[in-house]
Amino acid sequence: MYHTMKLKIRSYLPILFALIFIFSMNDSHADSFVDPEKDIDTNYAVNIDEVDSQNSTNGYDPIETTNRKIFAFNDGLDKGILKPLAKGYRAIVPSQGRTAIRNFLHNLETPTVLINDLLQGNSDRAGITLKRFMINSTAGFFGFGDPASDLGYARHTEDFAQTLAVYGVPDGPYIVSPFFGPSTPRHIAGRIVDFAAHPLTWYLQEQDSEARYTYGITETLVAREELLDILDETEANSTDYYVTIRNLYRQRRIDEINNGVPSDEASEYSIDTARDLNLVF
After folding, report:
1. Which residues are the signal sequence here (predicted)?
2. For residues 274 and 141, what is the distance between their CA atoms, to the nearest angstrom?
3. Considering Cα of 220, then 258, then 269, then 186, what sign does the dihedral take?
């Protein structure tokens, strides 16, 4: 007989995934529970040549030779391991289930988004973030659904690197990090703070390694599966895949920092292209 029982994340995983499959295979519930196309724009048209020609701030790449080597390493790792796993994930998990998992992960990030909304002094966006978390955590069945978007509270992203940008901290040179990909010194610093502030970081420290790896692998697969088709088309149409990714990364970050408002640093076209690609940098 057990005197005590400490339920860990891995204890819930079979239940959670079973619930996802139940909803995803039942059309009458799935339609009202999640929208498989939400947050994914599949009707994109990318003029890669125009993206490649964007040079302004995108060209600040003083260690390009080293960056290209790391980029090639990451790309090989992606094509050899991560991309096949993402394809397998797509083949096994129905679209409704994948959307539910993505919604759940987005909901877990909401407290961090709220903190950065407040640090940036944006009370309106903070209010939307708080409402999204409350609605999706309850009516959205612990975040697997996204009824908040249907009610007009659209999801937005904020991170500490964006907060640093609002405070005037310069971006710095373009850096390709092993495993993590495109970044800058400011973005790297922001990622460290965001990791420390994430609610699961502290909870998972109390769990065993299996729980931590399960969460990390799931988050990575979800992000990579979402980009399968888009990155394939981007690479196929790029004259220089490295330059294209570098420019799109810069445009995406500028877009996020300015909350979607075009700036002098990026053309409206390139901003739209970065949005369509939905790069999760």
Report:
1. 1-30
2. 31
3. negative
**Contact present, 157 and 148 (Cβ < 8 Å):** no
**144-196 per-position pLDDT tens digit:** 999 999 999 999 999 999 999 999 999 999 999 999 999 999 999 999 999 88
Q: Which two tokens stand for residue 20?
A: 């996802």
C-alpha angle 84-89-92 in degrees, rounded to nearest 5? 125
User: Model confidence over 198-215: pLDDT tens digits?
Assistant: 877 777 777 667 777 788
